[in-house]
Amino acid sequence: MGNILTLLEMRLVVLLAALFTYASICFAQNFNHALTLYSQKDYDEAYKVFNAFAKDNKHYAESRYHMGLISMHKQDFIKAEEYLKQALSVNTEVAKYHVAMVNALGNIITKANKFSQATMAPTLRKHMEEAIRLNPMDMNTPLMLIGYYMQAPGFMGGGSDKAIALANSIMKRSKADGYRAIGLIAHAEEKYSDAESNYKKALNISPDSVKYHYSLASVYQSQSKFDEAMDVYEKAIERFPTNRNLLLVAGRMASFSGEKHSENGVKYLNSYIGENPDMADKNIGEAYYYLGMIEKNRGNKTLARKHFNSALKVNPDHTRSQQALKEMS
């Protein structure tokens, strides 16, 4: 009898092991399928698959991270923060989780009241600092932290001395990013000539990196030098033809820089939207809004209303389009 029980127990163990292995394979296949859907920008389907992973599954943190990214893509930053907290509750030692949280909180803070901004700012700084600690070779997060140091008061952890120290440490690892960091400090202090000089040094060192084009264009925009800024964008668009975000930011600038750049703005924004726009991309709503502003400034009210309504079809919560239509009624 004992031998029979032992044999049955062994068979049960083998069966359970087989079932566990099969379940692990299925979970792995499902996770890889979700990643494929995400890479193909099928965000709704990817979200459904990611959402199926329970907290005790090894893919839980990554699934919540991607759900956070999907939520940010849809401009639901509150939900993104929630999912990223869930990812970090499992593993705080992943730099990209902190970087994603910085992006989510940064968007939430811009729309918050002064009190909320003050209470959220230290958390934002903490995630930046953690991201840098975990991935010291990332040059983008330190730039955001320098921006924080330059804007936040001392009691919130700000200070130009911290910004300068961080810029110097960046310079030791990357000359181009070091000049960009020094330029950002000068930019924040409204020392525009110094900022322009350092941004140009960065661009000369690394002309094949789009971020230095953005920085140089931004300092021109800060001075309302729209011709110079548009020239930078045009060269960047020619150099990086697959970078759709350049089309959007150039179109945005055209929406407030006057008639001279309106034609370019319309061209770039229509290119961004394309013939078959991804309606899950809430920035399509932004593009329609900027088109509406260009036509409003031109006095083409009928076309402007059409664009504002198109923005609301993509994003019913697009408050600026709502306000623009209200002002035109």
How would you concisely characterize the structure shown here?
The chain is mainly α. It has 17 helices and no strands.
Determine the CATH superfamily of the domain at 45-138: Tetratricopeptide repeat domain
Q: How would you sum up the major sheet?
A: none
DSSP strand tally = 0
Output the number of helix runs.
17
Helix content: over 70%
| Average pLDDT, all residues | 88
Based on CA inertia axes, which overall geometry fits?
Answer: globular
Structural class: mainly alpha
Q: H/E series, N to C?
A: HHHHHHHHHHHHHHHHH
Separation, N- and C-terminal Cα atoms:
89 Å
Uncertain residue segments: 20-27
Q: What is the fold named in CATH at topology level of the domain at 45-138?
A: Serine Threonine Protein Phosphatase 5, Tetratricopeptide repeat
Strand fraction: under 5%
CATH architecture assignment of the domain at 45-138:
Alpha Horseshoe
CATH class of the domain at 45-138: Mainly Alpha
Provide the gyration radius in Å: 24 Å
Features:
Serine Threonine Protein Phosphatase 5, Tetratricopeptide repeat; mainly alpha
Verbal overview:
This protein is mainly alpha-helical and 329 residues long. The chain contains 17 helices and no strands. Among the domains are: 94 residues, Serine Threonine Protein Phosphatase 5, Tetratricopeptide repeat (Alpha Horseshoe); 85 residues, Serine Threonine Protein Phosphatase 5, Tetratricopeptide repeat, CATH 1.25.40. About 2% of the residues have low confidence.
List the helices and strands and how they pair.
Blueprint: H1 2-39, H2 43-50, H3 60-73, H4 77-90, H5 95-110, H6 114-134, H7 140-151, H8 160-173, H9 175-188, H10 192-205, H11 210-222, H12 226-239, H13 244-256, H14 262-273, H15 283-298, H16 301-314, H17 319-328
